[in-house]
Amino acid sequence: MTLEEKIIDELKKQNIAYDLVEHEPVYTNPAMAEALGVDESETVKSLVLKTKEGKMIVLVLPGNRKVNWKQAAAGAATKKVSFAKPEEVSEAVGCEVGCVPPFGHFSTLPIYMDPDLPKKKYVYFNPGVHDKSFKVKGWDLRKLCQPSFI
């Protein structure tokens, strides 16, 4: 089962309405927002980070936000977090850096989310590929991710 199929399966299981939008391949949130014709804050940035102890986590932010490293570390109850290496990301979540979805990964990773995302009417995220995006209600994303908030 592909990552996209796994995500669709989860959306259906939880009875969550979604749209799947195909677009040209995008590799950044500004490009994704432009391709979808939405504000960058409505796109989802899912970053795989590694704690000082070597544990991997997923940090889910609005596309226009930058990582607050101290806040991310405090939220994950560690002293320091940094980006996981691309090969570690691929192994843990089942796709390459730049199209990591906020949930549905191949391994179970703790998810930490910016509290502004569930307040958005709709949000858009990549399903493990660069040329498609899912559109769901912000509140439904929270339901799907079951995150801790930072």
Number of domains: 1
Which CATH architecture would you pick? Alpha-Beta Complex
What composes the largest sheet?
Answer: 5 strands, mixed
3D shape: globular
Structural class by SSE content? alpha/beta
CATH topology: YbaK protein
What would CATH call the homologous superfamily?
YbaK/aminoacyl-tRNA synthetase-associated domain
Helix content: 25-40%
**SSE order, as H and E?**
HEHEEHEHEEEHE
CATH domain class: Alpha Beta
Global Rg: 14 Å
Tell me the layout of helices and strands.
Layout (H helix, E strand, L loop, with lengths): L2 H11 L5 E4 L6 H8 L7 E8 L4 E7 L6 H7 L5 E3 L2 H8 L17 E3 L8 E4 L6 E6 H8 L2 E2 L1
Parallel strand pairs: 3-5, 5-8
Antiparallel strand pairs: 1-7, 2-3, 2-4, 6-7
Written overview of the protein:
This protein is an alpha/beta fold. The chain has one domain (3-149): YbaK/aminoacyl-tRNA synthetase-associated domain (YbaK protein, Alpha-Beta Complex), CATH 3.90.960.10. The chain has five helices and eight strands; from the N terminus they run H-E-H-E-E-H-E-H-E-E-E-H-E. The chain has helices at 3-13, 29-36, 69-75, 86-93, 138-145; strands at 19-22, 44-51, 56-62, 81-83, 111-113, 122-125, 132-137, 148-149. Strands 4-2-3-5-8 form a five-stranded mixed sheet. Strands 1-7-6 form a three-stranded antiparallel sheet. The mean pLDDT is 96.
